[in-house]
Amino acid sequence: MIASGRRIFTIAGNALTDLTRQRVFYFGLIVAPLLIASSIFMARFSFQQEFQILKDISLGVMSLLTSLLAIAGTARLVPQDIEDRTVYTILAKPVARFEYLLGKLLGVLVLLALSTALLSALFFCILYVREQSILSETARQMSAAPRDQLVAALNGVKASAFNGDLVPAICTIYFKGALLAALTLFISSFATSQLFTIVVMVFVYFIGHLQGVAREYWLHTQGSGWLAQIFLAIVALVFPDLQAFNLIDDAVAGTVIPLALFGKTALLGLFYTTVYSAFAVVSFYGREL
Amino acid sequence: MIRLLCLFIAVLAFGAVRFPMEHNLLEDHRALHFQGVDFNLDLREQVGQGAFVAALSGFRSVVADGLFIQAHVAWENTEWGRVLLLFRQATALQPRSVLFWDMAAWHMAWNASAAALNDRTIPRQALRLKAAREYYEIGKDFLERGIRYNPDKPQLYESLARLYQQKYNDHLHASEMFAKAAQLPEAPSYDKRFAAYELSYSEGHEKEAYAELRRLYDMGEREHLPTLLARLRALEEKLGIPAGERIPPGEH
């Protein structure tokens, strides 16, 4: 059967509607903005400290919510359709299984893009408001200072508030979310329950973040016996290295993220998402429905 | 079952394909000093299990911020031991934040040392001075480690220069640090001047300092600042520069 964009988009639209009705989405919609907005109450610190904390908390919340939505949202899609028997109705029509899965994944990816864009807009608004208020305060305090000193002080405030490297850092949060969604879809394509998928994905999430550190630690301090090496190789081959997508910490600290590094991270994210989606399709074709 | 086995083999094969990509990315991260955190058992014991796991799960900066806020509260309560401990943890978790290293050094070398000097529970002045000097050393250690993680940021070199200047009265090292800061792309224009000023206070380096200050002076009106003129005149006197080679007397 030839893939039909229309069918995939229709399923994606339905998946998106379904996802926006989930409690986890509303939870995120209420809690995440509250957490981001709460970081504004850091006025007791100097403006550099305040901006750093604001960025850290906001990007941390974005990362957590995106991962949560990717896992909890995707884990539910296929098992729920099987439980409701909707999947039988859909697949009885001229809809291929891969179209069904790709539609579902597309729905999740659109939701993740929307939530990331929404939270980013909120974050940048708060950052802008605080920046403007500190700029006017600084201008008032330094009204008697020479012009070049005033300009230097204002530039210092601007440099502490927004830097262009926050944008690629936010994009990597999205890539990580997309990867997790595709992997969750793969697990749910053979899992028998939603709970199983979520539990497995929580483990994958932690192992994915830990494996790089654990690998370094084991190989450097425990020696590198062949048994340890085989075990570590299997862990490294099976689980994604999620630390590779963590550019937030360095972007917030003001480090420049080179375009080449961002490109490689994006490529890796795309590669992961594509391959996990392909695994999901293969696995779903083998499933008896 | 066979299908699952095939999938497992495919996952392994996929891992083998992506491994060079990830390795390449990791090398890039290392070259840029990204994720230079040393997650070891000491850190685990210091921050507690919950914070350690959170830090490992991609929330390193948030945990570091929490520790930084706690350090700020400890500073308000003048609990210097706790301030030191918390800053050690915060800087261990977020070594790329210049702010953390700078604040840690400032609290230790300036605030904690001043508190030690004024601590009347220590009976002898010599002991108070010793305690203060220990805090200077801790502050210096924070800045030196911060520079190792952030060799491209001028702020920490400047702070170390100020530490040498104000706490150790070591103008030569202060000059070296300002000069290193001045070479970095983000350095403010005053770093090169400060390097020359500090050199002018270093015994035995007057000639070098004079040459450097004169070079700055010859760069144009913009560099004819009051301190620069004052230091140049002081060195002209000290080195016995002939009247014809001295800067015009009218400038202030």
Report what the structure shows.
The complex is a heterodimer of chains A (289) and B (252). Chain A has 289 residues and is an all-alpha fold. In chain A, 81% of the residues lie in helices and 0% in strands. The longest helix of chain A has 45 residues. The mean pLDDT of chain A is 85. In chain B, 40% of the residues are buried. Chain B has 252 residues and is mostly helical. The interface between A and B is large, with 52 and 45 residues.
Question: Characteristics of this structure?
Answer:
heterodimer, A: 289 residues, mainly alpha, 11 helices, 81% helix, B: 252 residues
The gist of it:
Chain A is mainly alpha-helical and 289 residues long. Helix content of chain A is 81%, strand content 0%. Chain A has one domain (5-285).
* Count of DSSP H/I helices of chain A: 11
- Radius of gyration of chain B (CA) equals 25 Å
Mean pLDDT of chain A: 85
Structural class by sheet pairing and helices of chain B: mainly alpha
- Taking all Cα atoms into account, the compactness measure Rg of chain A is 22 Å
Mean pLDDT across all residues of chain B, rounded? 87
Shape of chain B: flat
- End-to-end Cα distance of chain A, whole Å, is 19 Å
In total, the number of strands of chain A is 0
H/E order of the elements of chain A?
A: HHHHHHHHHHH
Helical content class of chain A: over 70%
